[in-house]
Amino acid sequence: MRIIEHLAHFFIPRHTNNHRAKLLHSSTLIYLIVILIYYQLTIQFIARSGFKVLGYAANISTNDVARLINEERKKVGLMPLTINESLQKAAYQKGEDMVTKGYWAHVAPDGTEPWKFFKDVGYRYQFAGENLARDFPDAASAIKAWMDSPNHKDNILSSKYKETGVAVVEGRIAGLDTTVIVEFFGKKFADIAPLIPVASAKTTGEAVLSQENSSPVKTNIVVSPFNITRNLSMALITVILGTLVVDGIIVSRRKIVRVAGRTIAHAAFLGMILIFALIIRSGSIL
Amino acid sequence: MKRMTKHLPHYISLIGILGAGVTGFIIFSHDRQFQGAVSIALASGYVAWGVIHHYLHKDLYVSVVIEYLVIATLGLVIIFSLIFRA
Question: Do A205 and A83 meet the contact criterion of CB atoms below 8 Å apart?
Fold first, then answer.
């Protein structure tokens, strides 16, 4: 019985809560804000403490990335990019460099630029480009994120590039187990022989990728910090929205006069936050 | 409902502000900095709307302003924890 009284006090406007659900009181909401901030700090602490419990599960194959990129090019009438083994190797080295040194950027903290990896494998380029993605659950969502970004889309749909190399690398960045996708784009100097002969430069992507590194990368992650944060946030907003609706209906029917903000305005704002939480995706691109 | 009809232009402007924010959030889904800026602008606009609305309605009190500020902050904390997460 006391539990029901407590619940009613918390969710229904009545004399015990000054005719406004206790959950909607500014003091209660401030407590919730403090708890959310504390929760975020805890997540950050766990990520940096070395406990391997947080990260992003992925199921990505280099085959899928290359195929989807060429499908996008095909849609706009461009020739597909051919997979170049040297570029594959360069992309893999870039991914390894990021997880080894623990950075997430085009240029490493020590100043190493992406073009160094092209040169290291003997790829003499006329044009070169790089797209990076991390924390995506699959190849399709990573490609969609690139296509939504004008700069990354320019790389994918550029007629300047003729070849590509894709690598999917697992490792830890900023304390989180993650999966990084590196895609290099390039066009070699036609009249200059590469420093290292690339025998399969003209081999199609599928053919090369089916021989090596085509199996999906699956990480052994237990908890995605993004998913738990999103689910927790959405549950909290939904509870507050429900309480606002109940509170608004009861106050309106009982014709209670009180000093408070507009229920409809609060519901509209929190509804928008709910939409934002649904829109935001787990991965990030560079 | 009668009060809502009376202040319909107020609510239409609020929906307009929030709708523009959602549109910007979707269009610039690749740009986290922009999404963060949109969220701050929307939260500020929401608080400003509340202050102006209650001032015109002649029921503007400090506790009401605090209520709008707290809800705006709650929304921002949630969005920022998703945009700039671990």
Answer: yes
What gap in Å lies between CA A138 and CA A70, rounded to an integer? 17
Which chain B residues are within 8 Å of A131, Cβ to Cβ?
none
Residue A163 C-beta-side C-alpha neighbours within 13 Å: 27
**Chain B residue nearest residue A236, CA to CA:** B78
More confident residue, A54 or A107: A107
Spatial contact of A269 and A53, defined as CB atoms under 8 Å apart: no
Question: Which of A253, A269, A274 to mutate to test binding with chain B, by most B CBs within 10 Å of its CB?
Answer: A269
Nearest by CB to residue A37, choosing from B64, B77, B86, is B77
Tell me if A182 sits within 8 A of A97, measured CB to CB.
no
Looking at chain A, the whole-number percentage of residues with pLDDT higher than 90 is: 18
Helix, strand, coil percentages, rounded to 5, for chain B: 85, 0, 15
Which chain A residue's Cα is nearest to B76?
A273
